[in-house]
Amino acid sequence: MTDHDERTFVMVKPDGVQRGLIGDIVTRLETKGLKMVGGKFMRIDEELAHEHYAEHEDKPFFDGLVSFITSGPVFAMVWEGADATRQVRQLMGATDAQDAAPGTIRGDYGNDLGHNLIHGSDHEDEGANEREIALFFDDDELVDWDRDASAWVYEDLADHD
Ligand code: IDP
Ligand code: MG
User: Fold this and answer.
1) Which domains does the chain have, with CATH numbers?
2) In a mutational test of the pocket of ligand 1, which residue from 8, 96, 104, 113 has the highest number of ligand atoms less than 8 Å from its CB?
3) Which residues are responsible for catalysis?
């Protein structure tokens, strides 16, 4: 039986919010069959930005990254589904939107390395999804619910023989 309850952290970055792309980005994840279990429209402060991007602290682009991510509101989310972390990364596309394949979120909407619209937990960094979820959400902000469509997304949940 496939595990359908992997959770991952996703965020529409300030450029995506300013460009009115929250809805389109949410739609991409919903139509893939993933299930939203948390969402928060918020402004990231300096301290949270430093924690969230701690792995990039020593990179030359770090200060610019912090100033970008705190420059306007973001839409932070938690999504659930089979292989959710890697599935979201595939939908996002390559980090540099100029290299991201058409059909991906960054490939279709972006044209820049820094302004690349969406963050998703790194599936190659063990536990990054859980760490990032805990950084942005309290347990009681996450909603357990059954998505009826899941039975039509995952064959092993179906009623038919
Ligand atoms: P990811 O968002 O695809 O996981 P990371 O390597 O984790 O990519 O980098 C985090 C974010 O930092 C990227 O999404 C991008 O906005 C920004 N970034 C990464 N590399 C550079 C760079 O070389 N110059 C400027 N910004 C960068
Ligand atoms: Mg990353």
Assistant:
1) 5-83+124-140 (3.30.70.141)
2) 113
3) 119
